[in-house]
Specification:
91 residues, 0% strand, mainly alpha, 87% helix
Length: 91
């Protein structure tokens, strides 16, 4: 009824051909898996580099903010004191 023959009934060369096809397919799958692993590795390295750069930029921004605060806050307080003095002196 159109059933496939059992392995015992197949020609040995057919079995060998099937096994070669399976081996070729497995090699192709292994090659694809290697490519995917390399792609994942390169993406991981790229992400790590971007993360390191981002962290460095954040540290730089925090340092700049700290320096600006050290300069700006005393300046602002001096201006407020001068305005308060002028208001107190002339009114």
């Amino acid at each position: 009824m159109g059933e496939s023959p059992d392995m015992d009934e197949q020609n040995p060369s057919d079995v060998a051909d099937i096994l070669r096809d399976i081996r070729a397919d497995q090699r192709e799958i292994v090659a694809l898996l290697r490519e995917q692993r390399e792609l994942a590795r390169s993406q991981l390295e790229s992400s790590k580099e971007r993360l390191d750069e981002s962290m460095a930029l954040q540290r730089l921004a925090m340092d700049r903010q700290k320096h600006i605060t050290l300069i700006a806050v005393p300046g602002i307080l001096t201006c407020i004191a001068a305005i308060a003095y002028l208001v107190w002196r002339y009114f």
